[in-house]
Amino acid sequence: MPVITEIEDLKRIYKRRVPKMFYDYAETGSWTQQTFNDNCSDFDEIRLRQRIAVDMAGRSTAAKMVGQDYKMPVALAPVGLCGMQSADGEIKAARAAEKFGVPFTLSTMSICSIEDVASHTSAPFWFQVYTLKDDDFMKRLFARAKDAQCSALVITVDLQIMGQRHKDLKNGLSAPPKLTPASILNLATKVPWGLEMLQTKRRFFGNIVGHAKGVTDPTSLGSWTAEAFDPSLDWDRIKEFRSWWDGPVILKGILDPEDAKKALAVGADAIVVSNHGGRQLDGALSSIRMLPQIMDAVGDKIEVHLDSGIRSGQDVLKALALGAKGTMIGRAFVYGLGAMGEAGVTRALEVIHKELDTTMALCGERDVANLGRHNLLLPDDFATRWR
User: What architecture (CATH level 2) is domain 7-377?
Assistant: First the structure.
């Protein structure tokens, strides 16, 4: 068993083990990937302020997100196709999150269905939905999430139109996949992955096939997906979706202070500052660079979370110190899932937790609730370089 001390260790194993089309699906952005790369590199511009001779006994990373208690302010983000990174991947990730004490967010575009995940876990999980046209499907999806006792609804608001992801197109990654000779050859080299996949019945989009009108099998999924997303989405429609759910609602995909204010106005309980991991508008600013402006606009009125670019516990600390109350990790846990299944997700969470706890202590803090800008050293123009 290799020694895993950082998320990058899991990524190396993940790349060797998982077929290229699914590795590229996770590890890619849109167009030139400028935003995808900036999401990580902009964290590196933030420095930490070291403090010494502070009593560090009895430290706590415990936090509340949307009124719920967790071991640390880190949620597993909604990631589609987790069940293709590792057989029954959503179930594995949800179980790891439950045992560790953090929330898991199930994507609508998951391989395992809401019911699959609910039947294999006992802790309530969060459920993510897109802003689709089909009211009948959407209302039944909300009802299924409620029946599964999901504790929060995450509405993704930045996917009206899909950004172009060159590698996905070249790999033939679609619904269903369009296999090429190169991808078939690559699949044939991933024997342990393939043997696992042969042992599961869950290989298609479990929340959609058999639930959406006209989608009775994987071959009919492509046309439905192409027409399902709503390019006419507006804030009245988002407000309508919010009215269909009587629990906490989190709007994911906010990257502008004015949109953050509008999210507050439609009754969201929390927002996620996110650029979809650099997979939508290439050339947009990174989430961490936009966070200060959004905090200035709404930070004391609505709970603010952040995702896109977090690869370490230090990144989590920097987001919290800039005002976020929670964070989401996507690729970081997917690396673990693809590398080692449930144990890999657990290891990713352990790595991030230890990095967060140790860094917090070296910054002179005993509780994540006390983190603030006083713990950071920021370039003068970090939040104002582009206007």
Answer: Alpha-Beta Barrel (3.20)
